[in-house]
Amino acid sequence: MSQLDLLNTNDETEKYMVGSVDAIFFESPETFYKVVQVKIAQANFNWDEKEIVATGSFADINEGIEYRFVGKLVTHPRYGQQFQVFNYQNEMPSSKAGLITYLSSDAFVGIGEKSAAKIVEILGMDAIEQIIADEKKVKKLGLSQKQQATLIENLKANNGTQQIIIELNGFGFGSQMASSIYNRYREKTIEVIHEDPYKLAREIPGIGFKRADQIAEKIGLAADTPQRIKAGLLQGIYDICQEKGDTYTNAEQLLNQTMVLLSNSRRVQLSPDLLADQLLELANDGIVVAEENRIYLRKYYESEWRIAERIKEIKETKIKIDSGFENEFAQLIEKVEEQLGIKYGIDQIKAIKEALQSKIYLLTGGPGTGKTTIINGIVAIYAALKDISLDINEYKNEQFPILLAAPTGRASKRMNETTGLPASTIHRLLGLSSGDEDEREHNQLEGSLLIVDEMSMVDTGLFDTLMDAIPTNMQVIFVGDKDQLPSVGPGQVFADLLASPDLPKIELKAIYRQENESSVITLAHAIKNGTLPTDIKQGKSDRSFIECNAYQIENVVRQVVEKAKSKGFKTRDFQILAPMYRGPAGIDKLNEMLQEILNPHVTGKKQVEFNKLHFRIGDKVLHLVNSPENNIFNGDIGEIVGIVTAKESKDHQESLIIDFDDNEVEFKRKDWIKIRLAYCISIHKAQGSEFKMVILPMVQQYTRMLNRNLLYTAVTRAKDFLILLGEPAAYMSSVKQVAINRETTLVKRLTAVFSPSEGNNDSKAEESVSEKREDYVTNTILTVDLINSGKIDPMIGMGEITPASF
Ligand SMILES: Nc1ncnc2c1ncn2[C@@H]1O[C@H](COP(=O)(O)OP(=O)(O)OP(=O)(O)O)[C@@H](O)[C@H]1O
């Protein structure tokens, strides 16, 4: 048999080798992936040479140290045969010399060969085990304090990290995921997994319930263990709230959802009673909150109460209004009107005046109603009244006293452009990093006036954090368009605030955009009122309608785009918006086609492949998550301006350089998951952005997704031109479908804190949130009693599920 036959990659039998690491060829800075050369001392496979290249996930591996590697031989298309390591262990140095080499290696900075020799001489060959078992042993080795500390620290840490990575590998996590998990829990990793493997599903992006459940099974958690059922219930509430945008659910919905989740994951049917019992325990422990027939994750329950209480505190803190305000205001408004060359309407003046006199003020209005013009007026008059300079250069080391913020990068950039003042995203303002909107750690805001735009996009978690950061004496103005889509995350904060009778507000109705009577704005207002103009299909100077079916969409979009291009529109000037990703008229299909016509592959030019997609220089791409550390946010659109191949890069990792409005950010391959092509994007992702021309395909195929707020949001993204395509019936069904109101209790909480005497059972304004929790248990018992007594059938809705579904 030839050596090549022996090295057949299909040979899956487990191989091992013992050897020392000669050289580390490559190490990824972000993951534990490394390519090393191993000098073989012993192996259970044929290998003619002294060395072999090994690849794998090594937490901490040192040159000159002997390890036992378990894995298989593979053939790399470019580099030939290699040993792919599944797991490895530090073969404790078997000889005295080996142990000395190990203790004097790079892993123990400050310990040289002499000191290492002394350690081995005094403690013997089991020196490491002895020190790990009893730290005091290092005291008699004649080492300096620093050396003693290094020795203990590194022996413990190295031992730990290696073991952890080996165990994570054993659970089937690849190097990337293993490092994400390790980075989150550090030395507690294995403890966390053994204590609650489901924590991974809740806390590590990319790990779902099913994956966590597999681990749970591996460590011996039976399908009916309370821990598993509780995890399923928590996941159930979380999933329902994320999917529907509600801040709570009910027992029936929750039990159905959890039953499906648990049964699908392990294919075992559980009794509804088991689930109901565990739900009761979760409530008794205060992990979920049941109130009447509502079941909340504690965090949303508390967020709504906290928001309401904070709003009241801020609203009720007095602001000083000078006796001469009326006169001064009348003069200042005239001055601003002169500067802007406009005359404010009655409602606009009312808005500016009330906003200036209120601690908290809400301002809503559709496109063109003058929200930005009002913000400019408020800022100018506020600055004049308070004698504040609006020249940002005068605030070198000081905080600018007027804070402007919006939920997305693009919206805050627009705010900055329209006001000429600094504006930032809410995340930046709060100093939050990726994914920690709900964290309670954040900056405290400084300044005297805060204006937040695009409020409809702010969800309960972020708003709770924002309210916590606002000092009680700050004046706050929330601006938005209540008819746009609600936030992606749970809640409908802006709509709820507006629905509260206790907060001063104004809804602007008059449209001021004059230029040539924009028919896009007329259309937007018609949609908002639940109708379509009779001339919807007639061509106008700024909008047109092309009738076609789902299968013709791709071709029609192609023609429209080619026409726009020939008329001199740049790729960034027009945006295709669609409601769905899948299907012949879906975002994915359209992006594929649009990339081919707008940025085709040119032989010899660089392109990289990722998840069956190609990325090329010049591609328009969308960022899918918030990344405040790079100042890029969910929904930001950028352009690929560079591709760095593995060969060209110092760390041998390929990357894309993406330009987001002059902010160039490097994306390593592991981060490509955060971007996608943006020739066509979803309407949700377009919220907070505006485009010169919007091309909007709508077909009946999308029916499930269509509603009035969605169509309204899409149409209002168009600044100059709107091209509607598709089936008129799809547009009609959109306007008829009023977006179902989200289930939230913020309005209820606001009423409770503002009017505690209104006989409302929930009016606990006098109590703190923790005191309110006292009532959870009684309420939960009621709910679960209902289930047990058969008044709520937890199997309702499961009629369509057959054993085959599981
Ligand atoms: N009182 C007014 N008199 C004349 N023009 C006005 C008046 N108010 C606003 N405008 C003009 O109407 C247009 C729309 O106003 P503005 O941009 O403030 O509205 P908006 O509500 O912020 O709209 P959008 O949400 O579409 O940006 C602008 O060109 C603005 O200059």
UniProtKB/TrEMBL annotation:
Which organism is the protein's source? Liquorilactobacillus hordei DSM 19519
Similarity section? Belongs to the RecD family. RecD2 subfamily.
Per its record, the protein catalyses:
ATP + H2O = ADP + phosphate + H(+)
Query: Source organism's superkingdom?
Result: Bacteria
Q: Extract one GO molecular function annotation from the record.
A: ATP binding
Q: Which Gene3D superfamilies match?
A: 1.10.10.2220, 2.30.30.940, P-loop containing nucleotide triphosphate hydrolases (3.40.50.300)
What function does this protein fulfil?
A: DNA-dependent ATPase and ATP-dependent 5'-3' DNA helicase. Has no activity on blunt DNA or DNA with 3'-overhangs, requires at least 10 bases of 5'-ssDNA for helicase activity.
This chain's protein is named ATP-dependent RecD2 DNA helicase
Q: What is its EC number?
A: 5.6.2.3
Give the enzyme class: isomerase
Binding-site list for ATP? G368, T369, G370, K371, T372
